[in-house]
Amino acid sequence: MAIVTPARTDLPALPHWEATPGDLPGAIRQVKAALRARITASGRSVEDVFAVIEKRVRAGVEQIAAEKARGETVWPVIDYADIAAGTVTADQLARLRQRGCLIVRGHFDRDQALGWDQDIVSYVESNRFFETYRGPGDDFFGSVGSRPEIYPIYWSPAQMQARQSDRMARVQAFLNAQWTSQSDGVQWFDPQRDSLYPDRIRRRPEGADSAGLGTHLDPGTLDLWMTQAYQRAFRHLFDGTVEAYDPWDAAYRTAGPQYPGTTMCSAFRTFQGWTALSDMAHDQGVLHTVPIPEAMGYLMLRPLLSDVPDDDMCGVTTNKVFPVSDTRHPLLLEALTGIPDVRAGDSVWWHCDMIHSVAPVQNQRGWGNVMYIPAAPWCPRNERYAAAVREAFITGASPSDFPAENYERDWPDRFQPGDLNQAGRRGLDLE
Ligand SMILES: [Fe+2]
After folding, report:
1. What's the pTM value of the predicted model, to 2 decimals?
2. CA 70, 73, 76, 80 torsion: positive or negative?
3. How far is the CA of 40 from the centre of ligand 1 (A)?
């Protein structure tokens, strides 16, 4: 386990806001001035600290460009069988940590995944979902034609079977183990227990046109700079020890608050992920990431440079997804890399701080179907949210992170409490 350096206490304290500040531009001005002052008091300049991160990121960008030029697969790929047997090699592990993203081949049998896809179709059709669908409940994902692309469905037997399965638990524990979950005598999260974060389904049909989703990230917005917990989590960026910044350090990340918003995720996720329910070719509007975990340090420091106005965090604001742009972050976008071809039953994972996007597609070949299932290990933050999830599960409501669309409340064949296994009960804190 890595040794985690504590925050320096000899530097000027930072102002912090545990709830969304009323005066956003004022708070941005205040926190930026304080962060700059803190870096200066540590004996370094903002430009110097940023240059350290930029150099690390640039090395990654150049390596990725070289791999692409040689026709290599940038995304690491590991067979589920090796995770289950404990035969993942040291090289594969190093590559996973270097890239911060992963394809798990054969996570589920292909027939199992295709069966789940059909079960979901039967589940929504028998409950007249398409007849009663009222349009997108938020503006996060668009819809295609009259039918949705994102189904606001959380409690189908297929989704719950996958969430509580041994195979899912094994992969989540493997991914969680890439993080430092314990340091300074604190267990920040339990890598062996998942909180079953319920999320939606995407089913994008053959022939679909989709605009995709622009480059963004999901861990938070202004709270990343403004709450005390995140200021501590990113302490090395702001206290003169930027070389010690470690994207895999969970310290201070798993208990703090998050500013509410339409795009929030209440849970701490080590990795975001989805399981493929159809085969998908790499050029059919698939997920892309900037597979450089240290890029988060770049994003956190970039607004402190002198070319960004004092009341601007490079466009980051509450209630809007954290944008990554050509104007402020052109270096990062050079490394944007799509997943390779995947088959039904493969799963796709990316570090929770990772920049990602979904490519546009025209007249899509084949289906593009996924179940979103992340790794959200047990920790104070996820325990809090699990109470809300348990309630939603019992009543068939939409979980509180999502719009209150509540389609499944009266659907008789949704997954029932009696169908939970031990992992399911532990995930919902029912035992
Ligand atoms: Fe996202």
Report:
1. 0.95
2. negative
3. 34
